[in-house]
UniProtKB/TrEMBL annotation:
InterPro entries: PASTA_dom
Protein name: PASTA domain-containing protein
Lineage: Bacteria, Bacillati, Actinomycetota, Actinomycetes, Propionibacteriales
Species of the source: Nocardioides exalbidus
Keywords: Membrane, Transmembrane, Transmembrane helix
Domain of life of the source: Bacteria
């Protein structure tokens, strides 16, 4: 098949597939174009080029692992009640029950490895090139919620440094992933202003001390608990957990049907962090969305959480 004809017919769907497999939306097209370029000779000879390109794309992103398990939920909400949540809990190993894979979203590969190895679970880390900070966990094999077989080696899928040139938004991406680790694992603490205004679906709900932990009452009720509940949901994608996307810019007037938060004294652009579990959220285009606003000193002075709604943001 002619390369240009195949690209015109299938590129959009392949970009969607790359995003579903964990590549940030703004980078998916680059990865797809690289795979098509590498597979040109085989595409020309193939009866159905998808039989060539789709496996190659999966190999590029997921390291060639075969997935036959379906993701199911892991109860993580109890983590929010821990004063300093430094690790995720999963089903306890006993004689009659295999251990269950936890969600590792919000952990680095090193933190995830230590968490699993504490329970004598062998770990292999595979890197996926992205413009996000290296070493952030994207998913696992087996995915979250699956039983871990006897002597099974768990593959932790994490970001790695890409060979292509990344946009000049590295500070924004690092800030977003640090904030995610702060919320979920408690192993990082972003540079907050002395007082941080918290918004939910466009309305200010409280102001928290910039030195407080994510398990403090203000953070928990407004942001931490909803995020932990979301990441513990079944994620119907090959990674087994929500896909993380980070962008920088001026927030739209509405996000998933909710009005824009407008923190006093915040500067633009702000950083937007989107967690997309898939399923209905992917159809609606509305994942769990967090905007991080900075003051003139570059400290996070406002955090706005938008819960998934029924209408996509314009």
């Amino acid at each position: 098949m002619d390369i240009d004809e195949y690209r015109a017919a299938r590129r959009t769907r392949l970009v969607e597939l790359a995003t579903e497999l964990g590549v940030p939306a703004e980078e998916s097209a680059v990865v797809v174009d690289q795979v098509i370029e590498e597979q040109q000779r085989r595409i020309r000879r193939a009866d159905d080029p998808d039989d060539v390109v789709v496996p190659a794309l999966r190999d590029r992103i997921l390291g060639g692992r075969q997935r036959g398990r379906s993701a199911t939920v892991v109860p993580l909400v109890a983590c929010a009640a821990v004063v300093l949540a430094v690790s995720l809990a999963y089903v306890t190993r006993d004689e009659d029950r295999a251990p269950t894979m936890p969600s590792l979203l919000g952990f680095t590969a090193a933190e995830a490895t230590r968490t699993l190895e504490r329970d004598d679970i062998a770990v292999h880390v595979v890197g996926v090139p992205q413009c996000n900070p290296a070493g952030q966990v994207l998913g696992s094999d087996p995915p979250a919620g699956s039983a871990i077989g006897t002597d099974e080696v768990v593959t932790v899928i994490a970001t790695s440094t890409p060979q292509w040139k990344c946009p000049a938004d590295g500070d924004s991406r690092a800030r977003a992933w640090t904030f995610l680790r702060f919320l979920v694992g408690g192993s990082a603490h972003p540079d907050f202003a002395p007082g941080v205004r918290l918004y939910v679906d466009g309305e200010q709900v409280t102001v928290v001390d910039g030195g407080a932990s994510a398990s403090s009452p203000g953070w928990r009720s407004a942001v931490s608990d909803p995020v932990l509940q979301y990441v513990s949901r079944p994620a119907p994608n090959p990674l087994g957990q929500p896909v993380v996307s980070v962008s920088q810019g001026t927030p739209p007037a509405t996000t998933c049907g909710h009005p824009r938060a407008t923190p006093v004294g915040a500067v633009v652009p702000s950083t937007r962090l989107v967690l997309m579990a898939g399923g209905p959220d992917a159809v609606n285009g509305c994942g769990l969305t967090i905007d991080l606003f900075e003051d003139v000193l570059g400290k996070i002075s406002g955090v706005a959480l938008y819960t998934p709604g029924t209408a996509a943001a314009p």
